[in-house]
Design goal:
Blueprint: H1 7-33, H2 39-48, H3 66-79, H4 81-89, H5 94-101, H6 104-115, E1 121-123, E2 139-143, E3 146-157, E4 164-172, E5 178-187, E6 193-198, E7 209-219, E8 224-225, H7 234-242, H8 245-270, E9 272-273, E10 276-277, H9 282-307, H10 319-343, H11 355-362, H12 372-384, H13 399-405
Helix pairs in contact: 1-3, 3-4, 3-8, 4-8, 5-7, 8-9, 8-10, 8-11, 9-10, 10-11, 10-12
Bound molecules: flavin-adenine dinucleotide (FAD).
Flavin-adenine dinucleotide binds next to strand 1, strand 3 and helix 12.
């Protein structure tokens, strides 16, 4: 009741839960062990209508709300993090940016690919431009009607399996003047786009993370995404839409934590030591209660952040709430999963149970998509109403900042 779900939302949640337990859970360990992108599960997700459900009906989606997507993602994440991330990235993130700012032709292309099972890739981070994404050096030089892209991105989720790529690059006109940052769509098999490295990751091992190199990648005018306020403020516009994925990422973390807690609760009732179920020890009871409290708080924040997006497919969640939610849910989830593993004792440390996989997977969510530290800066900046430039010269005395502080 307190979560305020409608009958339709509860029914969707139940359908997603059955899918997760029946189709996804039996495959989860192998996906991790074999570092295998689960194309079979992608196909089943598409058939079940979980891919691109938030896209407009006119484009083949279902006009589903973000809350609908969150309910599905949470259930998938209880079984398999890779599967949950595929649902995230076909419903929010790069696809949100295309739905917000893409041309009709770009939206149609993205929607078709997603419905065929594609998980679009977002290409922002570079070796020397991580949290400081504006330091990116990948460049898009104007040539005729289109652009030519050169540069390198790394830690790109889906490298080698994603077909659609949304690439952020610094835009230059014919005279070499920098115009700001723009979004460029490219396809996996385009000449000039190649995967030059696969990362060996701690968790999420079925999802390839890789380095992409762009060498004279030609992007025609039809694939250029010009944000509404032009390239000058392009980065802010593109990021605002893309950052809807923070709600998805927080949900994956929360789902992993919920799955781990389910396991821990069952074990606490059955495992006996000192002649009693371990759940009879107050030390564990209080751990379980804290885990549940953190989980419920995360869930309430995530549902509220999802609802803040509203019904329009080109809208996105409140950025402040999305950032706070990702900070809270990701940090809570790491603690919950760690405690769930503790409840299992040595068995929690074994590869025969899913707890160690969950602990490896959940660790990512305070890093990717904006670190917990950088998101705190964003929240503080909005609270204070100040820009908080992080470069040294950005802190050169500025009357507006100094005056307000005094
Ligand atoms: C599994 C995974 C998937 C990813 N997928 C993608 C993807 O698909 N596309 C993409 O573009 N990127 C992706 N990333 C990259 C991710 O967005 C970056 O890792 C993240 O932005 C941080 O950048 P960095 O790793 O270079 O860390 P750095 O920026 O080098 O930060 C190192 C540490 O310093 C801290 N720090 C940095 N600046 C500040 C500051 N101003 N104040 C306080 N602390 C600070 C950070 O919080 C962090 O703890 C992915 C990362 C991971 C781990």
């Amino acid at each position: 009741m307190v979560l305020g779900l409608s009958a339709d939302e509860i029914a969707l949640q139940a359908r997603a839960r059955a899918f997760s337990q029946g189709v996804v859970r039996p495959r989860a360990a192998a996906i991790d062990r074999d570092q295998e992108y689960p194309f079979d599960i992608v196909k089943a997700l598409a058939e079940a209508g979980f891919l691109g459900m938030t896209m407009p009906k006119a484009l083949g989606g279902q006009d589903a709300s973000f809350l609908d997507a969150v309910l599905v993602i949470e259930e998938m994440a209880k079984s398999c993090t890779v599967t949950a991330r595929i649902v995230v990235e076909t419903n929010m993130g790069a696809i949100s940016t295309v739905m917000a700012y893409g041309s009709e032709a770009q939206k149609k292309l993205a929607a078709r690919l997603v419905l065929e099972g594609d998980k679009p890739a977002i290409c922002i981070t570079e070796p020397e431009a991580g949290s400081d994404a504006l330091a990116m050096t990948t460049r898009a030089d104007r040539r005729g009607d289109g652009y030519v892209i050169n540069g390198k991105k790394h830690w790109i989720t889906g490298a080698g399996v994603s077909r659609l790529h949304l690439i952020f690059a610094r835009v230059f006109d014919e005279s070499g003047e920098s115009l700001g940052i723009g979004g460029f769509l490219a396809l996996r098999d385009d000449k000039g786009l190649s995967v030059t490295k696969r990362e060996q990751t701690m968790g999420l091992r079925g999802m390839p993370e890789g380095e992409l190199t762009f060498e004279n990648l030609e992007v025609p005018a039809s694939m250029v995404m010009l944000p509404p306020s032009g390239f000058r403020r392009g980065f802010a516009d593109l990021m605002n839409a893309y950052n809807s994925q923070r709600v998805g990422a927080g949900t994956v973390a929360m789902g992993i934590a919920g799955g781990a807690l389910d396991h821990a609760l069952a074990w606490a009732k059955t495992r006996e030591q000192f002649g009693r179920p371990i759940g009879e020890f107050q030390g564990l009871q209080w751990m379980l209660a804290d885990m549940q409290t953190q989980l419920t708080a995360s869930r309430l924040m995530l549902y509220a952040a999802a609802r803040s997006r509203g019904p329009d497919a080109s809208a996105f969640p409140d950025p402040m709430l999305a950032a706070q939610t990702k900070i809270f849910a990701s940090e809570a989830a790491i603690k919950i999963v760690n405690d769930a593993l503790q409840v299992f004792g040595a068995r929690g440390y074994s590869r025969e149970l899913p707890l160690e996989r969950m602990a490896r997977d959940v660790r990512m969510f305070t890093i990717g998509g904006g670190t917990a530290q950088v998101l705190r800066t964003l929240v503080a900046s909005k609270m204070l109403g100040w820009k908080l430039p992080q470069t040294r010269d950005g802190y050169a005395p500025k009357p507006s900042i100094r005056d307000a502080a005094e």
